[in-house]
Amino acid sequence: MEKWDDNRAWFLVLPVFIVVAFSAIVPLMTVVNYSVQDILGPGQTYFAGTEWFEEVLHDGRLHEALWRQLLFSGLVLLIEIPLGIMIALAMPKRGWGVSACLVTLALPLLIPWNVIGTIWLIFTRPDIGMLGVAINKAGIVFDHTASPTDAWITVMLMEVWHWTPLVALLCYAGLRAIPEAYYQAAKIDGASGWAVFRYIQLPKMRGVLTIAILLRFMDSFLIYAEPFVLTGGGPGNSTTFLSIYLVKIAMGQFDLGPAAAFSLIYFVIVLLFSFIFYQVLQNVGRREKQ
């Protein structure tokens, strides 16, 4: 009886498992089903085995989209993580300025992703956009609809503006959790600002930085709405990331088998890189503690 009483709490978790089953596991199994079949029509299917996986893995356009995606995610991390840390360090620790900074930083995070793309599409247009017109009037030819370089710059600016506040807020929370006694001890020892950051602030922020890096990598690797609205994957295929290419296969060409296989490969890639990032960050933390 006591054993039964101890395990009754698990029934409180049962609704969560049911919701997860319908929202994640069932759709995933549907994708797995499509990935090994060829659908010829209503009720007309045949087992394709690994045919779609082999086709997708040998797709040159997929390889290009993958390298494009890796470059984009790498640039996102290289820019947003240091920038978020600097913003968090520059924010006030007390007073009305704290609330003002937190509200201001949170504003981009409240805007829907497709609206973000629309805002930047209008903002950077070379004919009517405030930024686009200003750049062209300065003598610099800028048109993200015609130049792949300009398209990449615009997408990166949009991504940094949209998501750096998340990194800054996480880092600020980590900084505020550091006891004041650490700073007082460093002041007594005559530690420089860099020494305080290197040996007090950065180690204490490791937990939130791990979360920030994992979230930003996964979000940037799965980005779709913003670049699709802004550039549509163009000009050409210069901003066709993995998610946009997947939608083109699934919805544009209606190749459900290859699209399903692509989805599973995409899923494995995100999990693999996230696991690698997590392990590397954890190993770095263990070495510094030793």
Summarize the structure.
The chain has helices at 2-7, 10-35, 51-57, 60-90, 96-110, 113-123, 130-137, 148-176, 180-188, 193-204, 206-221, 225-230, 242-252, 256-289, and strands at residues 37-41, 44-47. It has 290 residues and is mainly alpha-helical.
Main sheet, how many strands, which sense, barrel? 2 strands, antiparallel
CATH-level-4 superfamily name: MetI-like
Radius of gyration (CA) equals: 24 Å
CATH class: Mainly Alpha
The total of helices stands at 14
Q: How does this structure look, described?
A:
The chain has about 290 residues and is mostly helical. It has one domain: MetI-like (MetI-like fold), CATH 1.10.3720.10. Helix content is about 75%, strand content about 5%. It contains 14 helices and two strands; from the N terminus they run ααββαααααααααααα. The chain has helices at about 1-5, 10-35, 50-55, 60-90, 95-110, 115-125, 130-135, 150-175, 180-190, 195-205, 205-220, 225-230, 240-250, 255-290; strands spanning about 35-40, 45. The protein has a two-stranded antiparallel sheet with strand order 1-2. Helix 3 (about 50-55) packs across helix 14, helix 4 crosses helix 8 (about 150-175) and helix 4 (about 60-90) runs antiparallel to helix 11 (about 205-220). It is globular and about 75 Å long.
